[in-house]
Amino acid sequence: MNCLSENEEGLDLLTGYLAKTLDPVRAAELDCHVQECANCRALMRAWTRLDEFAVPEVSPDFDARLYARIAAEQASRTSGWRRWFWLPLAPVAAGLVAMVLYTHVRVPDSPQQTSRMEIEQMAQAVDDLDLLTPIDR
Questions:
Q1: Which helix (H) or strand (E) is 124 found in, with range?
Q2: 13 Cβ contact list (under 8 Å, min separation 6)
Q3: Domain range holding 87?
Q4: Whether 89 and 127 share a structural domain
Q5: C-alpha distances out from residue 52 to 19, 20, 91, Å
Q6: N or C terminus of the chain: which is more exposed, having fewer CB within 10 Å?
Q7: pLDDT tens digits, one per residue of 73-131
Q8: Count of the separate structural domains present in the chain
Q9: DSSP state of 133
Q10: What's the predicted TM-score (pTM) here?
């Protein structure tokens, strides 16, 4: 028998064995393998210890508190005026910056023709772009 971790049916074999629904021949094979294989023995031990875990009681108002917390979290995410202010303006601002760059900044024919004025225009355009970028991001 292959290890439970290497076998495609490993999880089904393990759950069937623990639920005692596995046929006796397969259960005996699994018993022999678990005695020989340390990995499968540790896996079997971990699964059997899960049955010993005591599940804490859920408070009666758990659902109400959970839904209230979810609603508060959603409200805090969507109520910021900055988000709603910048959301429609961001694509418009990006388009305007692209148009300004396209119309006012020329690509020089060679690196020697780059003038000081063009470098300053590019720096100013980058600064303008920084101003139009939303603060939240």
A1: helix 116-132
A2: 4, 7, 22, 26, 30
A3: 79-132
A4: yes
A5: 15, 17, 57
A6: C
A7: 887 765 566 666 666 777 788 888 888 888 877 665 555 555 666 777 787 887 777 77
A8: 2
A9: S
A10: 0.37
